[in-house]
Amino acid sequence: MNQLILVVEDDATMQKMALKILRSRGFRSELARNGHEAMAMAGVLKPALILMDLSLPEMNGWEATRALKADPALAHIPVVAITAHAMVGDLATAIAAGCAECLTKPYELDELIALVERYVGPAQAQAKIA
């Protein structure tokens, strides 16, 4: 079962935190630093879930989400907005762009894990080689 999570985040502190949380719980995760990287990596990796920051350089999260949802090969991948933009209009814009839901920064570790598990299930145990 594919459980790869693509984290799209430009802030170094948030990158480290998200990847550490996900990987410590057994989820495979990769990092894209902007919307262009997210598009390229999603096309190659076909992640099970994309956690998309909305305030990104070069191509913001709203634009990247719309582009992902316009690509028939990628449109099925759920995108969850991860944002400090907690205003009602910003959340509605993220949903209109194609995000399944939004998680507001700063978030708690348990909030992130619960969200990820709703989309990809619990982390799969790594097979041990005897």
Provide structural commentary.
By secondary structure, this protein is of the alpha/beta class. It has 5 helices and 5 strands, in the order βαβαβαβαβα. It has helices at 12-24, 35-45, 61-70, 88-97, 109-120, and strands at residues 5-8, 29-32, 49-53, 79-83, 101-104. The chain has a 5-stranded parallel beta sheet with strand order 2-1-3-4-5, sandwiched between helices. β3, α3 (61-70) and β4 (79-83) form a beta-alpha-beta unit. α2 packs parallel to α3. It is globular and about 30 Å long. Mean pLDDT is 90; it is low at 126-130.
- What is the terminal separation in angstroms? 22 Å
Counting H and I runs of at least 4 residues, what is the number of helices? 5
Q: What is the strand content?
A: 15-25%
Q: Major β-sheet, in short?
A: 5 strands, parallel
**Shape label:** globular
Unreliably modeled segments = 126-130
Category from helices, strands and their pairing = alpha/beta
Q: What is the N-to-C order of secondary-structure elements (H for helix, E for strand)? A: EHEHEHEHEH
Mean pLDDT value: 90
Number of strands: 5
Percent of residues in helices: 40-55%
Computed over alpha carbons, the radius of gyration is: 14 Å
Question: Spatial order of the strands in the main sheet?
Answer: 2-1-3-4-5
